[in-house]
Amino acid sequence: MIQASHVSHFYGAEQVLFDLSFEIKSGEFLFLSGESGSGKSTLLSILSTLLKPSSGELLIDGESVEKIKNIDYFRQSKVGFVFQFHYLINYLSVYENIALAALEDKKQNIEKILEELGILELSSRYPNEISGGQRQRVALARALVNEPKIIFADEPTGSLDSKNSQIVYGLLAQAVKRGTTVVVASHDMQIENYATQIIRLKDGQIL
Amino acid sequence: MISLKALSKNSFKTLLIFSSITIAVMAIFLISSVSQGVIGMYSKMINTDGDIIVTQKGISDTFFSNVDIALIQKIDALPHVSSSYAMIVGASPIGHIPIAGIYGTTANHFPHYKLAEGVYPKEGEVILGENLAKQFVVKEINIGNKKFTISGVYSSEIGFEEGGVVMNIRDAGKLFNRSASFLLVSSSSPSEIDAIVGKISELSSEVEVKTTQTFVKEYNQFKIIENSSLVISTLAFAMGLMGIASVMSMIVNSRKEEFGIMRALGKSRLFIIKNLFFETLIMSISAYIFALLLSLGILAMLPHIEMLQGYVNGTLSLSTALYVFASTIFMALLGSLIPAWIASKTDPILLINQGCA
Ligand SMILES: Nc1ncnc2c1ncn2[C@@H]1O[C@H](COP(=O)(O)OP(=O)(O)O)[C@@H](O)[C@H]1O
Ligand SMILES: [Mg+2]
After folding, report:
1. How far apart are CA A34 and CA B47, in angstroms?
2. Which residue from B86, B235, B244, B282 lies 20 to 30 Å from B131 (Cα-Cα)?
């Protein structure tokens, strides 16, 4: 469903990704592994359309990302994101944060998802009034609300203890079971137990 | 509404912007109002009591002007002249007050100063303006090197007259070494005023004759006050506006992370701009109204502050208020929307990372 061909990226003069080509198939749980600084976040950002690569092309369902007419609608409806830091909006409640991301016809899903993730009772709290693990679950709920075809997660457990990490991995694995494609970038090798495919990066190259 | 939530939850930032707008707007209001007020009072004093003013030729300041009072008889004899009076305007220490205005005038002009108590002054007597009277409980005061008896207290619509002293023009003449500073002439037929101006000019080569309207328009002191206040208030306002714009853009910069998240969630640039537009509008309009009310309150209090003795007065014109309103809103929007528009063009992930830094 996603094809990267000859993707390279520079930050200023520093090249951090070197001519990467690979394919992510629908329904996969892809694990992007590698040490810190190897380029995982950069690659994940490119794959999820949040960053334009310096060169190379990204095809989604055979179509070049450059040609997507309404990138905003594409991001909102087809893609879900979970970041290392939850990135919730601080002045919106848990419910409002999810509602902000939700498409009109998906708003009815919000409560159900909150319930599934065990955070329904936090609906009216603000991000600074809940724990780190709870925040990450809210971020996951936000990524799931529009039932996207693919979810990208960058170090989703980076700020969580191992118990909370297991919960997040379990929830991602469930999404995969329902047919969602999941791409996780992490240096935490625990994910190997859940992943269906692994790409190992080192210094911006695939090993 | 999301703009209101953003404003109320980020109360520190909101307060910062709110107060910067309030201060900028108040600065311009107070500076321009006070200078307009001073000019307004002085021109009212001259305008209301005559159609024509006679001053010494080549002396643009009424304080330094010196005119022969004998001219009055000749002027009164001219056709269409209904009345005329002479005045000496000066300033001097009065008792323990370091400086106050002295108005020496011919008796026919006394009714301009409404008696609050006592009687109009005879030779060697003075009446005190209400503001000044509050500072004296005695019967006699020293002005210059002379002793005067207080015969009454007067009130006036013109603030700074209430901080002064009114006496007979002969007494004032002894204090200031002249028979008159200027003469004011009234006519009952407005169409004849220009002709009268011409005739008075022919009476003496040492005077300058103008309609009071022209005089007020050309009066140097007014021009100086007007121009300098224009410069000061324009500078204050420009600095205020730049302050508003820079606070706005600072705050937009500190919210790059938030905008990046919104872009990543698929919110359009327009969505971000629209919300920021309403936030800015709500804030700048309410700060403007707050500043306006505060300024009007201060201006209303000014004449009652004893220390100022009524010398400082302020009037806020509608055109100033509207002009300041428009430019405040414009700069606030400019300062917030332009950086936000530029920022929202950046790749979302870079925006998020910049926000963290
Ligand atoms: N916004 C940026 N500007 C400049 N350099 C960056 C930026 N983001 C990442 N880098 C650099 O790119 C390299 C790869 O970083 P990153 O993709 O974050 O790797 P990882 O996620 O594997 O730790 C690192 O050397 C990092 O310092
Ligand atoms: Mg990373």
Report:
1. 87
2. B86
State whether the beta carbon of A42 lies less than 6 angstroms from ligand 1.
yes
Q: For residues B234-271, b (16+ Cβ closer than 10 Å) or e, as one string?
A: eebbeebbebbbebbbebbeebbbbbbbbbbbbbbbeb
Residue A136 · residue A97 · CB < 8 Å: no
Rounded average pLDDT over B76-102: 88
Q: How far is CA B299 from CA B206, B327, B349, in A?
A: 42, 22, 51
What value does the mean pLDDT take over residues B212-232?
Answer: 77
Q: Which two tokens stand for residue B238?
A: 């420009």
Percent of chain B with pLDDT over 90: 23
- What pLDDT, on the 0 to 100 scale, is given for residue B306? 62
Residue-level pLDDT at A110: 92
Q: DSSP letter at B46?
A: H
Q: State whether residue B267 sits within 8 Å of chain A by CB.
A: yes
Q: Do the beta carbons of residue B316 and residue B29 sit within 8 Å? A: yes
Element (H, E) at B301: helix B269-301
Total H helices, total E strands in chain A: 6, 10
Does B264 touch chain A if contact means CB atoms closer than 8 Å? yes
Residue-wise pLDDT tens digits, B278-336: 988 888 899 899 989 988 888 888 767 666 655 566 777 788 889 889 988 888 888 88
Q: How buried is A189 (Cβ within 10 angstroms: 0-12 exposed, 13-18 middle, 19+ buried)? A: exposed
CB distance A204 to ligand 1 below 6 Å: no
Number of CB pairs, chain A paired with chain B, less than 8 A apart: 57
A79 Cβ contact partners less than 8 Å away, ≥ 6 residues apart: A48, A49, A148, A149, A150, A151, A152, B266
Question: Which of A165, A179, A110 minimizes the C-alpha distance to A138?
Answer: A110
What pLDDT was estimated at residue B354?
78
Helices (H), B70-219: 71-76, 130-133, 169-176, 193-203, 212-218
- ipTM of this complex: 0.89
Residue carrying structure tokens 């309404």: A70
pTM score, whole prediction: 0.70
How confident is the model over B222-236, as a mean pLDDT? Answer: 76
| Shortest-distance ligand to the CA of residue A154 | 2
Helix axes of B269-301 and B256-264: crossing angle, nearest 10 degrees? 150
What are the phi and psi torsion angles at B152 (to 5°)?
180, 180
CB-based burial of residue B296 (10 Å sphere; 0-12 exposed, 13-18 middle, 19+ buried)? middle
- Alpha-carbon distances of A196 from A10, A182, A193, B310, rounded to whole Å: 29, 10, 9, 86
Tens of pLDDT, residues B100-158: 889 999 999 998 899 999 999 999 999 999 888 888 888 889 888 889 999 999 988 77
Contact B105, B86 (CB under 8 A): yes
Which residue, among B265, B260, B275, has the nearest Cα to B356 in the 3D structure?
B260
For A86, which residue in chain B has the nearest alpha carbon? B261
Q: Phi, psi at residue B340, to the nearest 5°? A: -70, -40
pLDDT at B41 over 80: no
The answer to whether A66 contacts chain B (CB < 8 Å) is: no
